[in-house]
């Protein structure tokens, strides 16, 4: 079965990421979505929550499909058991708790009940496919599809196979999220090796660690550090990646010239990067200070605030795709 | 003299940053700009280059001032000597070579010739004010104003005083770049302590180091890493800083809940971050691979390419300021 064929996706676990993923899949033509979650009020919860995500699928339209409409037309099914949700699936996607034992047990159960050709995707941010598949008989079917929040808006999906995952399974996932060709809002990227945090979170956490250190050392406040990021690196990296930025920064000599010109400062910074921990009791002095300043600066984000941030995120992503019609 | 008063800015060094800074200052009302550069063809160079930067000052207008017009109206003066450029300045801003001996010598000379009240700003990315002022008699006047490329578009200016810089000098610089109140395109941030790379480049280089390591280990290609950044962290950090993002990511529990939930993965990532160097001969295997892949992916950016990237950058910055009129 090709990724362009109609797909039937079983979603296991309907938290915030699951709900956003449901909206993502439902925004495509030729999909049927089967959902299973252990919460008893799943239907009421879907009716209440999913419309917020579906609305984002049609930025230029007030006509979002309703949950009842999707159910009536057979595009959305709510299931009482895992087996029933997986029975006709071509893709089974899991976004349950980040717990190795849970994931190993779910995949063994899914394997025993799902159609033999179905693709198995886990939305984990931290548990590699090779660990999750320990109790599976066939280890070629499972791979990580790691989304960034919120997945129905954020373009990135990190596709991370285990060493045992079949290449055609990897290609199927990459192709599915690239559809329709040239028009997909999503940008799947295949990661070549399993590594903790994959790539996006490793980059984010590397920057975060230094940010926490700089707040701990009182070089800058939480609020000012965020301003610095929004007023420079954020918009720069929204338009160029880090390597392309420095290729440009080096002028005609490219990144090689940049590394030569800034190498002294860069080595001094690399040699003195902050050494702090998030777990344990040592080198965690930053936590109290960072949490307190972050709470003071932002409090709890309101529903309106989150909505405005999602609208702005969509504007950035639209701006990324804009063409400017040649030189001024 | 208040930052709101008319200012006369002497710019020492007219490379790319200096040219962009000239456009920044000339875009404001009530400024006169005096330039000095050692290149013999400085007038031809200004006539040829400055218009590209001035055009960016008026995104909604085709009517950019011409260089000859600015000279004729007395808003722009080209000087043959440093002393003449500084003679009537209220602000002297230096963007010469990143060389400590050069900067120490320039500031000693400037101090001996400039009006006694003039403010001294250095656009260095790597040499602290406390090091630059070694040969000055009065160490209260100099501070770093570190811009991000290109400064006439990029909002951030890092203001980094030395321990000897007078607080009113710091406040003057902050206020100058905040004008007009509520309308300035720029966002000056005061850094509380001198530290190599200041804040913006420390954060950028922390992320870059991990990026280089991941390319070295063949986890991901240069091009795919850039795609990952543009499809997730770039637009996220253009809309929120890193702390606000994780405050939101933690839901009602804020960043504290986020650190608890993701702490295991985060500590694993922090403990295994790549250890690579840019100088010396050890741990520099990444360089050949990164330079080669970056050259292959991007080549030399064309003039059209740079122009399009600057237009897109302006769109991101405009989108940051947009208001969305409350909840949907």
TrEMBL record, chains A, B:
It comes from the Eukaryota. Gene3D superfamilies: N-(1-d-carboxylethyl)-l-norvaline Dehydrogenase, domain 2, NAD(P)-binding Rossmann-like Domain. Its main location: cytoplasm. It is an enzyme of class 1 (oxidoreductase). Pfam families: 3HCDH (PF00725), 3HCDH_N (PF02737). InterPro entries: 3-OHacyl-CoA_DH, 3-OHacyl-CoA_DH_NAD-bd, 3HC_DH_C, 6-PGluconate_DH-like_C_sf, 6PGD_dom2, NAD(P)-bd_dom_sf. Keywords: Cytoplasm, NAD, Oxidoreductase, Phosphoprotein. Its EC number is 1.1.1.45. It is found in: Cytoplasm. Residues 9-177 form the 3-hydroxyacyl-CoA dehydrogenase NAD binding domain. Residues 197-266 form the 3-hydroxyacyl-CoA dehydrogenase C-terminal domain. Belongs to the 3-hydroxyacyl-CoA dehydrogenase family. Homodimer. This is L-gulonate 3-dehydrogenase. It comes from Aspergillus pseudoustus.
